[in-house]
Amino acid sequence: xxxxxxxxxxxxxxxxxxxxxxxxxxxxxxxxxxxxxxxxxxxxxxxxxxxxxxxxxxxxxxxxxxxxxxxxxxxxxxxxxx
Length: 82
Description:
This protein is mainly β. Helices cover 0% and strands 56% of the residues.
């Protein structure tokens, strides 16, 4: 089975790699500081967004982390709205 992953490009910041995490059942990235970020889909307000885990809640963070584009392993690309 092919590994699921995506690369998040960020404006003026290093890119992040998101890999499948069975614990959260989604693509996640854990920073050196231990913050957990995930790619979320199917929200009523956004088709795709980046969230950070705070306790038991996911909060939208794509603006804070300066997300610009997601490149998926299958060649798909998602551009975040400006």
